[in-house]
C-alpha cells in the first residue's frame, strides 16, 4: 500500500511536470512561429530593402537575427528544462510502468519518424542555405554590375566634359572671328543711320520750308483779307453816308408833305409864307421846278402835285444811284478777289512743284541707300552662311579627330582635365568680360541712337500734325498741297520702314550675340555640372565600395548566423518531436494510470472489507494490528 501511495504521488508529480513541460513547449512553439514569421517578413522585405536602402535593411536583418538568436536561446533553456522534465517522466514511467516494452517500441517508432522529419528538415535547411547563397551571389553580381555601370557613366561624363570643353573653345574661336564682322556691321549700321539722319534732317528742312511758305501764304491771305475788309468797310461807310443823306432827304420831303397838308387847312397868309419857304427849299434842291402861279385853290393843288412828282422823281433817281454804286462795289470786290486767288494759285503750284521735285530726289536717294544697305546685308549674310558651313565642317573634322585622340589617350585626358578646365574658366571669364564691355558699349550707343531716332520721329509726327492741321484749314484752296503732303507721308513711311528694317537687322545681330553668350553660359554650366557629377560619382563609387565590403562582411556573418540557426532549428525540431512523442506516451500512461486507479480502488474496497472482518475477529488486538488499521484507513481515504 505504501508503494502504491508513493507511485500515485510520483505519477501526480509527473503529470504536473508534464503539464509544465507542455506549457513550456507551447511557449517554445509560439516563439518558433514568431521567429518563422519574422524570417518570412525579413525574406519578403529583403528585395525591397536591398533596392531602397541596403544598409538599413542589413541592420534590421541583423537586429532580427539577434532577436531570433536570443529567443532561440531562451527557447533552448525552456527546452532543456522540458527535456529534463521529460527525462524524469520517462524514468518514472520506466520505473513505474509494467508495460514499458510496448511504450518503448512505440517511442522507437516515433523516434524513427522524428529522425525522418529531422532529415527532411535538414534537407530543407540545406535547400534554404543554397537559396541564400544564390541570393548572395546575385547581390554580389548586381553590386558589381552597378559599380561597372557607374564607372562607365563616369567615363562617359568625362568624355562629355571634354567634348563640351572643345565646343566651348570652338565657340570662343567663333566669337573671336565674329567680333570684327560685328564691328564692321555696326560701322555700316552707323553710316546708314547717319545717312538716314541726314535725309530725315533734309526732309525736315524741306518740310520747315514748306511750312514757312504756307505761313507766308497765310499771312498774304490775311493781308489781302484785311485789305478787302478795309475796302468793304469803306464801301459800307460810303453806303451808310449815302443812306443817311437819302434818309434825311426823305425826312425833309415827308416834313414838307406834312406842311403842304397843313397849308391846305391853314389860312392863306400862313400858307403863302410856308409855301414860299418850301419853294425856296425846293428851289435849292430842285432848280428846274416851275414858278408859283397866282393864288387860288387850283394853283395850290397843282403846285402840291408838282412838288410831289418832283419828290418822287428825286427818290427814284437816288435809289437808282445807290443800286448802281452797290453793283460797282461788288464788281470791284470780285475782280480783286479773282486776282488774289490767281496769284495765290500760281504761288502754290510753284511751291508744290518744287516740293515734288525735292521729295522725288529724297525718295531716290533713300531708295538707293536702302538698296545699298540691302545688298551689303545680303552679302554679309552669304558670307556668314559660308563661314558657318566651313565652321561646321571644321567642327565635324575636329570632333572626329578628337574622338580618335580620346580613344588613343583616355588616361591622359583625366590628368590634363584640371589644367584644361582652369584655362577654359580663365578664358571664359575674359570672354565674358569682353562680351559684357562690348554689350554695354553697343547698348549705350544704340540707346542714344534710339532716343535720337525717337526724338526725330516725334518731331516728324509733330510736323505731320502741323501739316494736317494746315491742310484741314486750307482744304478748299490747297488741294495740291494735300497731294504733296500725302506724298510726303508716303516718303516718311518708306523711310520709317527702312529704319525699322535696319533696326530689325540690328536686333537680329544682337540676338545672335545674346544667343552665343547664352550658349557659352550654358556650356560653362554644363562643365560645372559635369564636374560636380564626376565628383559625386567618385564619392558614390567610394561609398559603394565601402558598402560592398561591409555588405560582404555582413553576408558572411549572416551566413554563419543562418548556419547556427539552421542547426538550432534542427535540434529544436528534434526536441519538439520528442516532446510530442513524450506527450503521446504521457497520455497513454495517464490512461493506464486511470485504469490502475480503478483497480486500486477496487483493491481498497476489498481491503476495507478485509479490515472489517479482521476488526470483527480481533476486536482491537495488538498495536501492530492497530498500525495496520491506521494505514488501511489512510489508504481508504478518497
Low-confidence stretches: 266-272, 281-295
The average pLDDT value, as a whole number, equals 68
Assembly level: single chain
Could you give the order of the helices and strands?
Answer: HHHHHHHH
Strand content: under 5%
Shape estimate: elongated
Give a quick account of the main beta sheet: strands, pairing sense, barrel closure: none
Instruction: Compute the CA-based radius of gyration.
Output: 70 Å
Number of DSSP strands? 0
Count of separate DSSP helical elements: 8
Distance between the termini: 14 Å
Residues in helix, %: over 70%
Global structural class: mainly alpha
Task: Give your account of this protein's structure.
There is one protein chain. The chain is mainly α and 638 residues long. Among the domains are: 179-229 and 345-516, no CATH class; 239-344. Helices cover 95% and strands 0% of the residues. It contains 8 helices and no strands. α1 runs antiparallel to α7 and α7 packs antiparallel against α8. The longest helix has 166 residues, at 100-265. The protein is elongated. The relative contact order is 0.11.
Quick description:
About 3% of the residues have low confidence. Helix content is 95%, strand content 0%. It is elongated.
Write the topology of this structure.
Layout: H1 2-52, H2 54-96, H3 100-265, H4 268-285, H5 297-408, H6 410-473, H7 479-618, H8 623-636
Helix pairs in contact: 1-2, 1-7, 2-7, 3-4, 3-5, 3-6, 3-7, 5-7, 6-7, 7-8
Amino acid at each position: 500500500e505504501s508503494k502504491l501511495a508513493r507511485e500515485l504521488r510520483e505519477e501526480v508529480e509527473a503529470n504536473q511536470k508534464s503539464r509544465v513541460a507542455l506549457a513550456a513547449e507551447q511557449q517554445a512553439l509560439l516563439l518558433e512561429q514568431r521567429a518563422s514569421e519574422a524570417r518570412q517578413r525579413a525574406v519578403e522585405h529583403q528585395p525591397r530593402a536591398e533596392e531602397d536602402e541596403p544598409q538599413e535593411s542589413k541592420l534590421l536583418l541583423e537586429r532580427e537575427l539577434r532577436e531570433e538568436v536570443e529567443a532561440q536561446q531562451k527557447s533552448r533553456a525552456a527546452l532543456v528544462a522540458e527535456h529534463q522534465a521529460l527525462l524524469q517522466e520517462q524514468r518514472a514511467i520506466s520505473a513505474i510502468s509494467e508495460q514499458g516494452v510496448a511504450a518503448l517500441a512505440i517511442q522507437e517508432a516515433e523516434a524513427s519518424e522524428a529522425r525522418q522529419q529531422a532529415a527532411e528538415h535538414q534537407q530543407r535547411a540545406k535547400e534554404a542555405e543554397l537559396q541564400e547563397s544564390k541570393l548572395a551571389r546575385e547581390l554580389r553580381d548586381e553590386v558589381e554590375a552597378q559599380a561597372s555601370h557607374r564607372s562607365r557613366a563616369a567615363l562617359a561624363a568625362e568624355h562629355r566634359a571634354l567634348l563640351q570643353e572643345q565646343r566651348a573653345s570652338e565657340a570662343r574661336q567663333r566669337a573671336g572671328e565674329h567680333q570684327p564682322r560685328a564691328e564692321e556691321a555696326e560701322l555700316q549700321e552707323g553710316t546708314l543711320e547717319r545717312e538716314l539722319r541726314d535725309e530725315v534732317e533734309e526732309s525736315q528742312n524741306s518740310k520747315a520750308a514748306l511750312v514757312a511758305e504756307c505761313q507766308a501764304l497765310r499771312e498774304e491771305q490775311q493781308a489781302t483779307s484785311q485789305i478787302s475788309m478795309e475796302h468793304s468797310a469803306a464801301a459800307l461807310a460810303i453806303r451808310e453816308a449815302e443812306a443817311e443823306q437819302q434818309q434825311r432827304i426823305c425826312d425833309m420831303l415827308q416834313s414838307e408833305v406834312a406842311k403842304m397838308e397843313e397849308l391846305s387847312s391853314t389860312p392863306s397868309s400862313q400858307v403863302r409864307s410856308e409855301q414860299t419857304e418850301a419853294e425856296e427849299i425846293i428851289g435849292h434842291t430842285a432848280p428846274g421846278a416851275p414858278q408859283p402861279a397866282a393864288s387860288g385853290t387850283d394853283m395850290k393843288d397843282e403846285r402840291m402835285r408838282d412838288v410831289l412828282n418832283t419828290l418822287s422823281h428825286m427818290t427814284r433817281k437816288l435809289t437808282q444811284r445807290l443800286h448802281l454804286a452797290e453793283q460797282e462795289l461788288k464788281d470791284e470786290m470780285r475782280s480783286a478777289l479773282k486776282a488774289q486767288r490767281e496769284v495765290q494759285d500760281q504761288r502754290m503750284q510753284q511751291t508744290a512743284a518744287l516740293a515734288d521735285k525735292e521729295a522725288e530726289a529724297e525718295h531716290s536717294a533713300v531708295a538707293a541707300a536702302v538698296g545699298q544697305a540691302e545688298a551689303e546685308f545680303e552679302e554679309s549674310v552669304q558670307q556668314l552662311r559660308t563661314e558657318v558651313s566651313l565652321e561646321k565642317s571644321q567642327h565635324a573634322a575636329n570632333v572626329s579627330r578628337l574622338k580618335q585622340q580620346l580613344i588613343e589617350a583616355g588616361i591622359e585626358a583625366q590628368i590634363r582635365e584640371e589644367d584644361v578646365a582652369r584655362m577654359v574658366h580663365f578664358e571664359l571669364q575674359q570672354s565674358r568680360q569682353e562680351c559684357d564691355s562690348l554689350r554695354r558699349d553697343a547698348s549705350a550707343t544704340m540707346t542714344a541712337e534710339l532716343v535720337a531716332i525717337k526724338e526725330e520721329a516725334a518731331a516728324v509726327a509733330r510736323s505731320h500734325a502741323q501739316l494736317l492741321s494746315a491742310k484741314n484749314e486750307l482744304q478748299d484752296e490747297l488741294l495740291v498741297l494735300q497731294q504733296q503732303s500725302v506724298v510726303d507721308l508716303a516718303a516718311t513711311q518708306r523711310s520709317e520702314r527702312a529704319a525699322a528694317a535696319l533696326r530689325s537687322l540690328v536686333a537680329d545681330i544682337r540676338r545672335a550675340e545674346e544667343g552665343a553668350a547664352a550658349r557659352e553660359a550654358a556650356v560653362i554650366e554644363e562643365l560645372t555640372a559635369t564636374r560636380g557629377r564626376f565628383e559625386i560619382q567618385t564619392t558614390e563609387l567610394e561609398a559603394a565600395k565601402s558598402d560592398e565590403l561591409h555588405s560582404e562582411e555582413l553576408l558572411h556573418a549572416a551566413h554563419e548566423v543562418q548556419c547556427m540557426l539552421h542547426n538550432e532549428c534542427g535540434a529544436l525540431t528534434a526536441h519538439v518531436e520528442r516532446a510530442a512523442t513524450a506527450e503521446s506516451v504521457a497520455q497513454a500512461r495517464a490512461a493506464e494510470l486511470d485504469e490502475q486507479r480503478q483497480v486500486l480502488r477496487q483493491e481498497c474496497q476489498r481491503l476495507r472489507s478485509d479490515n472489517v472482518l479482521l476488526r470483527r475477529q480481533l476486536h482491537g488486538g495488538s498495536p501492530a494490528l492497530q498500525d495496520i488499521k491506521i494505514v488501511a484507513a489512510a489508504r481508504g481515504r478518497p
